[in-house]
Design goal:
The chain contains 3 helices and 6 strands, in the order ββαββαββα. With about 180 residues, the protein is an alpha/beta fold. The radius of gyration is 22 Å and the shape is elongated.
Amino acid sequence: MKAPSGARSIGIESIYDTGNIVLPHEYLWLELQRQFAINGRLRVQPVHSADLYLRAHITNALIRPELTEKRKITDPDSFLNDAEPPAPWPMNTYQNQSIAHSYAKSESVFFQVAVEIWDQRKKVKIFTKTYSMSGSWTSYDSSLPPEYTFLQSEESFEGTFHGLAENLAWIIVTDVLQIPT
């Protein structure tokens, strides 16, 4: 694999996100820079002084629960455990999370990223491709007290997205270095 003919540097624009879902897209931007730096065939430089210019646009995103078998809830209060130590808020304020976990213990994310590479010396687009990625994470851990489940779910989501961004960045760098010269 080698860089496109005559190109020695690449500038990476901030990720443009119109996916209608809040994604931590800064992970993708950082991973793209890191993967190009690790590879070493193209130096990462500011966009205005680079030979190539990479533009990534998250065009579609979806987060949804992965449903388990539904079960009938007869008494929502039965999910509350009175033996737990008192929380900063009354336990019944977490009732919805306790009920929700019986329907879906994990969630999944799907997103598409359109990538363009421009040769800034010739002012032409030399590469365009759309990538799709998906992954899932545990959104409810019954071993945690209910007041921590939202934080745990968000941290799991960020970790999952970071891993997906790392894989996607590696794929993009590999594809860019295979552009015919």
